[in-house]
Description:
It is an enzyme of class 4 (lyase). Helix content is 28%, strand content 35%.
Amino acid sequence: MTARIAFQGEPGAYSHQACHDARPEMEALACRTFEDAIEAVRDGSAELAMLPVENSTFGRVADIHALLPASGLHIVDEAFVRVHINLLALPGTPLERIDRAMSHTMLLGQCRNFLRAHGIQRVTGADTAGSARHVAEAGDPSLAALAGDLAAEIYGLEILARHIEDQSTNTTRFLVMSREPDLSRRGDHGMMTTLVFRLRSIPAGLYKALGGFATNGVNMTKLESYMVGGNFQVVQFYADIEGHPEDPPVKLALEELDYFTDSLTILGVYPAHPHRLEG
């Protein structure tokens, strides 16, 4: 039986593309929500889940930071997908025939220049892959979809224009989640550790808690705060750091962090993706 990797969205979505690129040997399992994708791993329906965590243009993906600590899953890899946007239409349709394009609101906003130049009106769809499916089923040659290559392949649409996004660097970062952690690997491009923590209620707590990373030379690539349970008084921090918890500098930094926190949880230890070396 082929191992499966769960993702949120319809077949052909960019999360599906991430599964296809990072785990081509696995069967991708489409799920309605992020919670469903997580549950598919927990109940054994899938071995892994592919979850988007942040986008270079729009920032963090809503709800993910809150879902990860409670998921019971562990990060075992990261993946990056360059968000290339194509104009998809029924086969044989000339570009001049298109007067409307459907997609998720975010993608429509990323192709303003192209759509304006060709006089194409924007139509809001539920998501990218769903818009491609709608175009294929509607049979209207004047209606196109904005989506990726995989959506065109799945729904039998023709790519009329490739890479029409306004920004050439738009990239989404994904986390690969598993039921069990894997602390044995060492990546060719270094290691990443992701953690969440809550500070003790002391003056300058965050400053003191992060001091160990500076004094031990550990690079923190991401730090975000968010409320827990809608309570302004309960703030949790999400952080990505370079290195492995067994590395002496990281071990010392985490020990110092632990002293200033009420809770500290490592969500995953995984190889750094080579995309981090680009640009």
